[in-house]
Design goal:
Elements (H helix, E strand, L loop, with lengths): L1 H26 L3 H25 L1 H11 L3 H25 L3 H7 L7 H11 L3 H16 L4 H23 L9 H25 L17 H32 L4 H38 L2 H28 L1 H5 L10 H16 L2 H16 L4 H25 L4 H28 L19
Helix pairs in contact: 1-8, 1-11, 2-4, 2-6, 2-7, 2-10, 2-11, 3-4, 3-7, 3-11, 4-7, 4-10, 5-6, 6-9, 7-9, 8-9, 10-16, 11-12, 11-14, 11-15, 12-14, 12-15, 15-17, 16-17
Length: about 450
């Protein structure tokens, strides 16, 4: 689990480092620019979460095929994953053009709408390559070789920082494009990373023998349907969780632009630490899926529990760190010379205290969901997410915010309640399946089936 999970975790951390770099540099443009960019980023990220959730089915399917020693099935799963990427991202990119109208309908502060429009106008071009990158990463991870994705992502982080510095502020002889430049930088780097990783998967050993681009235009409708059957509940669950947080940000907008900036800053630290259990959850999907392909019941569940224990240990340490240095972390995202920064900084540090209390629960629910994906069990986790986040967490947060008088802090209390509920119910679901010795059959299209010999 450690050998597989560590590169995936560091890949996730490198990815969030890119977003953190963008946020930190945009913050130098002032709270209004940060608030506008944050809202656009939330709209973008909600869409990304949905698309990413659907293509995450390729990790489970490819891992099961690898465990069952069916290389042709792996190729067909990944090929259909690219098809799904195009089908999902093209309409989304068209819809992104109406982001300011969406924010206006949601009663967001009018002074930040031009900033939101400027950022989204160029950020939207990064959606397709980032989802394509995820498909290729799922492919190489299912073969127990996730390191190339890590090295590509690590190379992208400093390049993204340099492009941000050049295009946002007009350095190195480049024009000062501010938020438009931030989106251009992100899009260019995402396309470069996708193309480089795709080239590795197509031409480098041992990946090239799978020929993932071979007969690219040939459909496999069975695998295409399987990706949606498994992936749509994953996407819905991810959307329910992400929407739980991001809808709260839009609600915070009722308290003014500064409240949005404060909440965005305070969410950065738990978002960074979440990348570790998120990566462990993806590793659990692969390890559990491989065991499913081999028909190894004990190995499948052992892999899931090992990942859960690692996540719990790590997030407990992060809770202690977050409680110790909230002010230090919050100060990264603001220019201390800006007249509004001191008030925003103090409030952000106070919100980070609430974030500390849901770290462990957030890690447990993420890894448990990943382990269940390896079992192709995605419908019940989706139901659990809906109940925990929208049935318990958000109503609690709204009640505390508006009727309890806690305003934005009440919503953070709702985060704690909702994540704790999910952290109890998802491992319980995994344990129930374990008691039944459940593993799903590894299904394939008729074209891939070959007679078994004695």
């Amino acid at each position: 689990m450690t050998r597989l999970g560590a590169p995936i975790v560091f890949t996730q951390l490198a990815w969030i480092a890119m977003l953190t770099t963008d946020t930190a540099m945009i913050g130098r443009l002032g709270p209004d620019a940060l608030a506008g960019a944050s809202l656009s980023l939330m709209v973008f990220f909600m869409t990304w979460v949905f698309c990413f959730g659907v293509v995450m089915a390729t990790a489970a399917l490819a891992s099961q095929a690898f465990g069952a020693r069916k290389p042709r099935m792996i190729r067909r799963v990944i090929r259909q994953g690219f098809w799904v990427t195009v089908i999902l991202t093209v309409p989304s990119m068209i819809a992104f053009q109406y982001t300011p109208d969406l924010l206006r309908v949601m009663s967001q502060p009018p002074e930040i709408l031009p900033h939101a429009d400027a950022y989204m106008s160029t950020l939207m071009w990064s959606l397709m390559p980032s989802i394509g990158f995820a498909v290729v990463r799922n492919f190489i991870s299912s073969l127990n070789r996730p390191s190339p994705a890590l090295w590509v992502m690590l190379a992208g982080v400093p390049l993204n920082g340099l492009l941000d510095y050049a295009l946002i502020f007009g350095n190195f002889g480049m024009p000062r494009l501010e938020l438009v430049g931030a989106g251009i930088a992100t899009s260019i780097i995402n396309w470069l990373m996708f193309l480089v990783l795709l080239a590795i998967a197509v031409f480098a050993k041992p990946f090239r023998r799978y020929g993932i681009l071979g007969r690219f235009w040939r459909p496999d409708w069975f695998q295409f349907r399987q990706i949606f059957l498994i992936g749509l509940p994953i996407a819905a669950m991810s959307l329910l969780e992400a929407g739980f947080f991001f809808s709260s940000i839009f609600i915070v907008g009722q308290f003014g632009a500064h409240a949005i900036a404060v909440t965005m800053i305070a969410l950065q630290m738990p978002h960074i630490t979440f990348m570790v259990p998120m990566g462990l959850g993806q590793a659990a999907t692969v390890r559990v899926g491989q065991a499913v392909g081999r028909g190894d019941v004990q190995g499948a569940y052992r892999s899931g529990w090992v990942a859960l224990i690692i996540a719990l240990a790590f997030m407990s340490v992060m809770t202690a760190i977050l409680l110790a240095i909230p002010e230090t972390f919050a100060s990264i995202y603001l220019d201390g010379n800006h007249p509004d920064s001191s008030a925003v900084l103090a409030l952000a540090a106070s919100y980070l205290i609430y974030a500390a209390f849901f770290q462990a629960a957030d890690g447990i629910q993420a890894v448990a969901a990943g382990a269940l994906r390896g079992l192709s069990d995605t419908t019940w986790p989706m139901v659990i997410a809906a109940f925990s986040y929208w049935g318990i967490g958000l109503p609690s947060g709204l009640a505390l915010a508006f009727w309890g008088g806690y305003e934005a802090a009440g919503l953070w209390m709702g985060f704690v309640v909702g994540l704790t509920c999910a952290a109890i119910l998802l491992p319980y679901r995994f344990r129930r399946l374990q008691k039944r010795d459940y593993i799903p059959p590894v299904q394939e299209s008729d074209a891939d089936q070959t007679p078994r010999t004695a």
